[in-house]
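Researcher: Next entry in the queue.
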Amino acid sequence: MRKLHLSEKDRKIAGVCGGLGESLGFSSDVVRIVFVLATIFGGYGILVYLALMLILPKESNPQVIDVYPEDEIPRGNMFRNPREKVIAGVCGGIADYTGWDVTIIRIAFIALAGASGIGAVIYLIMWAVMPMRKI
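Model: Structure for this entry, 135 residues:
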């Protein structure tokens, strides 16, 4: 599975469906149909699309590799990541620490914030506690 991203090549509006299709190995038309059905039956398709449009990164150039050298990542500590920053770099720091995709962490925070509000509280606490990594 590739990293979740917005597609530059396969896009109708913002590249969400094309990027999800490329990342997950599905046809982008299948993803578009799922979004249309989710919009018709429940109305959440548009909201999810807009959220993904805001949080998914643009497709990166596959020839450019931007990776921290192993000696730059302090083991055992969690730092906010200024290179993966949308608001404060908290999700990027968690992604560095766990090795997970940063987009999945962002989606989890948004889901927790929308469901009970606890995601926003946890994010603010981590923003206050986690130091920013020096680059």
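Model: DSSP finds six helices and no strands in the chain.
Researcher: Noted, moving on.
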